[in-house]
Amino acid sequence: MVNTSELPQARVSKVEGIKERSNYLREPLATELPQDTTHFSEEGIQILKFHGSYQQDNRDNRAKGQEKDYQFMLRTRNPGGFIPPELYLTLDSLSETYGNQTLRATTRQGFQLHGVLKKNLKTVIAEVIKNMGSTLGACGDLNRNVMAPPAPFKARADYQYAWDYAHSIADLLTPQTGAYYEIWLDGEKAITGEESAEIKAARLKNGNVPVFKEQEEPIYGQHYMPRKFKCSLTVPGDNSVDVYTHDLSLVVITDEQEELQGFNILAGGGLGRTHNKEETFARMADPIGYVAKEDVYDLVKAIVATQRDYGDRVNRRHARMKYLIQDWGVAKFCEQVESYLGKQLEPFRSLPPWQYQDFLGWQEQGDGKLFFGLSIENGRVKDEGAWQLKTALREIISQFSLPMRLTPNHNLLIYEIEPENQEKINHIFEKYGVEIRPEAINPLVRYSMACPALPTCGLAVTESERVLPSILDRIQKLLQKLNMAEHNFVVRMTGCPNGCARPYMAELGFVGSAPEAYQVWLGGSPNQTVLAQPYVEKLPISELESFLEPILLFFRNSRRENESFGEFCHRVGFEAIRKFTTKSEKRNRKSQHRIGIPDDAYTRLKAISLAENKPMNLIVAEALEVYFSREVLEKNSPT
């Protein structure tokens, strides 16, 4: 077992020292929290992450010579996306009183609450804990929220196994330090569910996996993990969790009688990277084997311990488990896991093809009750104009006391609904202007994702959530122009290369690379089974139409039957795409004409261009189209 303290001090990243000095995530957080300040020290910020919060500043409010507008984002940890009704109503209320009046569903099945001030942090986290919630481990160098398919299919044993084991593995890997309850509840531990004796025994079991029995953290030790660690559970065929993007994914395997036999294992996925750092990259998980159900907790511990002991604690950009597997190779990684497990992994079991599912609309649970899947654009739960989603959900959850499950696509499912309440719920959504018909949602919007990015995320270099709706609208208009309105594809956008909205698995991915400019990734698949590749390093978003039009034309003219946009890009390759677009650009240049306009008209055009985030030539073309259409109407109108 590698002991971080044995490494030369100069070589260990500074965060390793912060963790070691923290006394199991207590300091300097416990000392700084009651101080009359607006923010924490650098060491305090690092430890705060483990407690489920990031220190941020609202960049929209930055002013020269003034202190940053410090605020805090809280993230919930709820395996499989489970949100009990009392927790949802608490989060809703806290966001109104202490936050920015919105909630943000995440791409890992949690909620984020933005805009909390330091002086209110303890109150907010305490209320979350007291109402069956937790933020512990939602951020930081440890196991994050464990994902699972959100559909509450009560008649499907495999879905229930995935759900149950997501919760059990989350419990197994939950930090055991007393710091969380000491700091946020003054030492009073809230009981949100009794942990099973099996999980307690599995955590402390000192077989081939070294554990720290005499320490507060039997699995993690005082240094925790080298970086974040992400897990998912799913069932054969259901890729709602983006199964290839996690450090560890387990696939439920049952027999013909639907009895649990064990789990297929995939390891080494991860999407975070850094621009212009080729040693960082997005990577899909590898299938590494199968484990019987009785060994699954030992298997999880063996994989976690392998990363704990051999992951890079010197270079944090190289610290995720995907780099360990890439450097070692799958065979060596499996050897180490097997040495900790005490037995060999069995061969990976065959699986049906993966399908992406979002479970929208009204569906039967299988026990006589219903669930309802609601699409939430970019995951933002808010009231805006006639669209009063936040009020609608508050009324529904208050009136019917229904639980939720958040989805990996930042949507939500409300379940345990009695059939006689279906029309009542429909009426509430209708009353508050919320569209509930899946078929009425633009597919580009339905399958898209964006991270929050500006103004609060400290890593964002450009916009994401706030501009994606306009980007999708522009793409839709372009598809209509090309007589391709029936086509859709998976579009994902992030404001930085860390990949929170998983753009590297999209058919069309936008990754922020500079203000109002994006790296463009092409070639992912609709079912998230193929890694996209970078096609353009820096596309000014004002040039979106001129960039995308020839690529879509090539797709329209050369696709195979039922071939998706991402599959087409992957099949033909970037060289063929560039060759076609180059020819198209040459043809367009020959047909372009220059025209002079007065200065005042140019100034007005420029202002509209900035306001609508569109290139000026597109605005001119749209204006002329309106003018020509009006002329046609006037000529054909009776006098």
Layout of helices and strands:
Elements: H1 14-21, H2 29-32, H3 42-50, E1 53-57, E2 70-75, E3 82-83, H4 85-97, E4 103-105, E5 111-116, H5 121-130, H6 157-172, H7 179-184, H8 197-204, E6 231-234, E7 248-254, E8 260-267, E9 286-292, H9 296-310, H10 321-328, H11 330-341, E10 361-364, E11 370-374, E12 380-381, E13 383-384, E14 387-388, H12 389-400, E15 404-406, E16 412-417, H13 422-431, H14 443-446, E17 449-450, H15 468-481, E18 491-494, E19 508-514, E20 517-522, E21 533-540, H16 544-558, H17 565-572, H18 574-591, H19 599-612, H20 616-636
Parallel strand pairs: 6-7, 17-18, 18-19
Antiparallel strand pairs: 1-2, 2-5, 3-15, 4-5, 4-12, 7-8, 8-9, 10-11, 11-16, 13-14, 15-16, 19-20, 20-21
Helix pairs in contact: 4-12, 6-8, 9-11, 10-11, 12-13, 15-16, 16-18
Please, could you describe this protein's structure?
The N and C termini lie far apart (91 Å). The radius of gyration is 26 Å and the shape is globular. A five-stranded antiparallel sheet has the order 1-2-5-4-12. Strands 3-15-16-11-10 form a five-stranded antiparallel sheet. Strands 17-18-19-20-21 form a five-stranded mixed sheet. The model is unreliable at 2-9 and 635-639 (pLDDT under 50). It folds into four domains: 4-13 and 141-178 and 193-341, Sulfite Reductase Hemoprotein, domain 1 (2-Layer Sandwich); 361-441, Alpha-Beta Complex (Sulfite Reductase Hemoprotein, domain 2); 445-591, Sulfite Reductase Hemoprotein, domain 1 (2-Layer Sandwich); 599-636. A hairpin with a 5-residue loop joins strand 10 and strand 11. It is α+β, with helices and mostly antiparallel strands.
